Amino acid sequence: MEKPAIPFQFQQQTMAKLKKRVCEQINYRIVWSQKGFTLLESLLSLMLFTFIILLTTICLQWNIQKGEELYNQSYLEWEMFQHYLVDESRRALHIDTLNNQLIMTMKNGDKIKYEKYGNVIRRRVNDKGHEPVLLGINGMIVNRTQGSIELEVSYSLTFYKSIVVRGVD
Fold it and tell me: Where is the chain membrane-spanning (predicted)?
């Protein structure tokens, strides 16, 4: 049995009605599902945007400051000197001061001396050699307190930095 043929004009009419119906449903969903942007939503989005901008500027400012510090040669030298001195003081048997000098006696018997020489702090082992460890300084003061030694260094930019070597007899 064959299906009866549907006239072409009828097919066009039903397709047109179907398209119209689908479009009406889509338009209804698009137009009526949006309730609008309320004042509260506007304020929240403005507050979020302001917070993001504020956070971004603070992070950029902090990043610029840290970048300047890291590229400052005296700051880098100071950090390296500080780490080196702390590491060496941990390996020392005895730490002492004499005439504004820091003297460490090591386990193998070597005496390591840190002293100001001109505008540098130099390191000497058994009063031999000349190893500059900190450059461009104006002054160095070594203070002994109970249980620690404080080293104050002044740079040509007139700022002071100090470190504490602990575990001193």
Answer: 43-64
